[in-house]
């Protein structure tokens, strides 16, 4: 396992863009009291229930997956993923503090959240990182089996949304499902590990 050095400007801008777009997606979700899938969805749910910010939960939930990434992928991928997770955890609450919506229909918020997050995740994937959590596992599964990352993540979303029914009203969960479908469809239709991930990021 070798550490790639140093990060190029090309990859740095890609990671920055991915962090910004994923954070904007979280901002839309929080503004409309919606949720998403995977570890980000779990972090959003916990932020509704407990007096801690989304970013704190997002980092804590991602910690075990960093180990999986280090063991199964590469040091470079893991460090870039840690950068992405910490970046999203910091930028999301900052955007939430500065962006205000007079009106934000939940249906529109769900679509915008899914689209922004999907584009952001693709940017992270293409530049040798992920947003942590199940995204790491999903990438490994696609490399080993060919089962697409977006569709893999959609299967896990069902569990998160079942739990969300205990916290959010039914219409909020339904809108959240729409956002998650948009996110995963964008990834499923526009990203393939074999075409985008460099060989040194694997193993």
Give your account of this protein's structure.
- The protein has 203 residues and is mainly α.
- The chain has one domain (9-201).
- The protein is built from 9 helices and no strands.
- The radius of gyration is 16 Å and the shape is globular.
Task: List the main descriptive attributes of the protein structure presented here.
disordered C terminus; 203 residues; disordered N terminus; mainly alpha; 9 helices
Blueprint of the fold:
Elements: H1 9-31, H2 38-49, H3 54-72, H4 75-98, H5 106-126, H6 134-145, H7 149-164, H8 170-190, H9 193-196
Helix pairs in contact: 1-4, 1-5, 2-3, 2-7, 3-4, 3-6, 5-8, 6-7, 7-8
Pfam families: YitT_membrane
Organism: Mesobaculum littorinae
Transmembrane segments: 12-33, 45-70, 82-101, 107-125, 146-167, 173-191
Q: Count up the domains.
A: 1
CA-atom Rg in angstroms: 16 Å
Mean pLDDT: 86
Shape: globular
Q: What's the gist of this structure?
A:
The protein has about 200 residues and is mainly α. Helix content is about 75%, strand content about 0%. It comes from Mesobaculum littorinae.
